[in-house]
Amino acid sequence: MNINLTLIGQSITFIFFVMFVMKFIWPPLVGALEERKKTIADGLAAAEKGKHDGELAKQHVLDTLKDAKAQAQDIINLAEKRASEIVEESKDTAKAEGERIIAAANAELEQEVNRAREQLRGQVVSLAVSGASKVLKREIDEKANEDLLKDLVAQL
Amino acid sequence: MSSEAISSADYIKHHLTNWTYGQSPTTGEWSFAHTAAEAKSMGFMAIHVDTMLWSIITGLIFIYFFTKAANKASAGVPTGLQNFVEMIVEFIDTSVRGSFTAKNDMVAPLALTVFIWIFLMNAMDLVPVDWIPEASKWVGVTFFGADPHHVYMKVVPSTDPNATIGMAFSVFFLVLFYSFKNKGIGGFTAELTLMPFQSKNKVVQGLFIPVNFILEFVSLIAKPISLALRLFGNMYAGEMIFILIAIMFNAGLVMATLGGVLQLGWAIFHILIITLQAFIFMTLTIVYLDMAHSEH
Description:
The structure holds 2 protein chains of 2 kinds.
Chain A: H1 6-136, H2 142-155
Helix pairs in contact in A: 1-2
Chain B: H1 8-15, E1 20-23, E2 30-32, H2 36-41, E3 46-48, H3 49-72, H4 80-99, H5 107-123, H6 131-144, H7 161-193, H8 202-248, H9 252-293
């Protein structure tokens, strides 16, 4: 246990090692640790921001969905209204058409009746004339009685 | 223990003698000391080759692994060695931040060096006490033709007071340097002379100055001494117990078995001591430097 030059040698060695660590070992290691700390903090912040953005997007989606639903409801309401309108319109049109058809049919019927009546009248006249002519035979001049017959036809 | 019959006292003495290179007081020549007495006679002009050798080897081991990790250091995911080194660095950084309040870029690297280097030097204690001395005896006898009794090899640098005092004085020098730098000569002198006893009366205050100075000076000097002797004492005692246990290996089968169990138990317990002593040295270094930076 002698105290000797080893003491000084040991001090020099110690100082050398401390200086070496101070210059070449400590700064890069602590730098790396700091950098990693920063990276992690950034990552966490980014994650937080992402979460926040996600929530915003979700809210936005909900809003949009609500709007879309409201719009769809409006459209449906409008369509229903329009449909009932169309139905009403069709009903009116159909009614008018039906009436028109009935009127036309009535008119035609009348025409037919009139025509049949005319025809019948003519036939009755010719039948009467032929009956009379058969009765009278040559005694009656057809030409002389024609005017008389025309009058008769007109009176029928 | 050597095959030749030597007494237990000689065995212990041999283990506690450093491999010394120094200047002979009679002839003035530089040579290796052949005996403990010769080494002692060399006085201050001698150097413990084994202490220097093993402290530098352990220091270089520390430098090698930490430089390797420092070169690979990146902000990415750390693996293996880098992970381990970063864990230690983080631990040191936390300790320094906890105890050191001022700003000084030197303290944390200093604390790291102190902790790891002292830990590795202490850890040499866990190598069975005869392995390295016997190996160096073989090398000495085979290659250098030395007398086997004169080959000394003390492998735990921290059991050499020169090593611990050398480190403690380096720390003390830093404490003085930063005390003068931060407080000025006046401030530092005031700290040494105007406390702990204070008085408003100028005459009484004047009388207090020498009392204060003695108290403060003793407490200042006690710092490096206690720092050095605490580490030295713990490691020297631990080493001594390992040597005593090793003597049991030569005293019959029963004693040897008991010795084996004891050695295992002491080595396991010693893991705690070597770590704790390294940690204490580091913490006190940080605290003393913090005191040098702070105003009272």
